[in-house]
Amino acid sequence: MAAKWDQSSAKRHLRALLTAPHLAAFLPAVMFGAYWYGGENLMLLIAILFPGLLALAGSLTRTPPVDARASDAITGLPMKGKLLEYLDRGFTSDAEFEKSCLLLEVDDLSELAQQMGHAARDLVLETLADRIRSALRRDDLVCFLGDGTFGIAIDKHQRADLEATLQLAGRLQTAVSDPIMVDNARVHLSACIGFVLPSRAPEATGEALFAAAQGALIAAQAAGPGSIRAFSNGMPGRSARSDHTNADLVQALDSGQIRPWFQPQISTDTGQLTGVEALARWQHPSLGLIAPGAFLPALAKAGLLERLGEVMLFGALKALQDWDKRELGVPSVALNLSTDELNNPKLFEKIRWELDRFEMPANRLTCEILENVIADGDDEVVTHNIASLRRLGCNIDLDDFGTGHASIANIRRFDINRIKIDRSFVTHVDTDRDQQSMVAAVLTMAEQLGVGTVAEGVESHGEHAILAQLGCDHVQGFSIAKPMPAESLASWIESHQTQTPAISSLPRRA
């Protein structure tokens, strides 16, 4: 290493000497000397050779350019190329160990950037990079792949089997889930992880191993935030996030591949079903269930969010009609309205026509509006649509509350029925005092305003219990039920109704 440094240092010093400005001052003296001793012929020869020698010496001493793409500017980690090179190395004949590949993607990182700014996102990524490195061995490699995704290659020792890799994935998730302080606020994050063992690789190449890990990551994201999946032969071998053409998306919407799935909301007092939320899911004929994060941005880019809204509205009302025929007692269905839909002057008429078509009272439909839409409530079309839907009798829920800047005046102005407490405030509310204080403050404000509350992203029984004690009216999340197709929800409701009488309400905190 020292010899290499000395050689590089010598080259730099020699190059600096050859390219120094004062070297040109000797050129007249050299030319004069050549003419004195050899006449015009020697002077002409020197005039030709001298610049050529300088150019040759400069090229020989030039240092190799630094690859600006070698590492990420924020995390300081190497990029995808390094990961593929490292994975490839595990398949060479002289490799001491094969390599396993893990892909970790932070859940909802884009929402964090929208809520707190890009500087906060960069701080989070820098912190996570340090934590992930600390959770790995010295010989393991971690790279940053962009969009909150980290790629990890580990040596597959004899004991690094499925169980050991699952344990490592759990440690990585723990490193991500520890709170991060950003502008005096505690940020709680989760991450999905997909991994593949070398024996499961479709081909003996780093690219194939990486593609298999992508397939496992997609499966993990489809299962919900904070999920872990190992690659199996039934999974797609490559992420299709950027492969969906506009024609693919239109066909998926028109053929029923993209349709609403439903997640129950229950009362914290009685345990009874109080509503369901319709969530878009894509059941691809060959790729299987595609996570929303893998196709919703593509729909937005293609300008198809309004078409998605039409599909979701029809599917939700049709499901509600079918549940009514079976007397399942679903009070209402909630739909997210995108900004594109709210900016359409014909939105109100479209929704009213669909309600009439299914002979459904307006109060059976809940329209979920993002908090930032309410906060920027100066748009006349948006304001008119929300006010018209409210006058029609639709319920209005304020979604992702706490992530935007909606004022109390706007909550009153738009006659909000309920506020949905964002998942970022619900995570670890049973163990984090600061989280409890923030949720308690939101619930107190809601009580003073006379609006209901729904906590979304409730993923543990502990979170459910503390939310009930704090006074939250309704809860929704994986601890109650995952999103499911309409026919599966019917079976869930029938099963839940038989269990509800045994559920006793928890005492509220004073």
Describe the protein in words.
With 510 residues, this protein is an alpha/beta fold. It is 48% helix and 18% strand. It is built from 19 helices and 16 strands. The protein has helices spanning 2-18, 27-60, 80-89, 109-116, 118-135, 162-177, 206-223, 246-255, 292-301, 305-325, 339-342, 347-357, 371-375, 380-392, 408-413, 423-426, 433-449, 461-470, 486-499, and strands at 98-106, 141-146, 149-156, 180-182, 185-187, 191-196, 228-230, 258-267, 273-284, 288-290, 333-336, 365-370, 395-401, 418-421, 452-456, 474-476. The strands form 3 sheets. An 8-stranded mixed barrel has the order 8-9-11-12-13-14-15-16, surrounded by 6 helices. It is elongated and about 110 Å long. The N and C termini lie far apart (68 Å). Mean pLDDT is 83; it is low at 1-6, 63-69, 237-242 and 502-506.
What is the 3D form?
elongated
| Main beta-sheet strand count, sense and barrel state | 8 strands, mixed, barrel
Distance between the termini: 68 Å
**Percent strand:** 15-25%
For the secondary structure, the number of strands is 16
Mean pLDDT: 83
| Class from helix and strand fractions | alpha/beta
Low-confidence stretches: 1-6, 63-69, 237-242, 502-506
Radius of gyration: 31 Å
Given the structure, what is the number of helices?
19
Strand order of the largest sheet: 8-9-11-12-13-14-15-16
| Percent range of helical residues | 40-55%
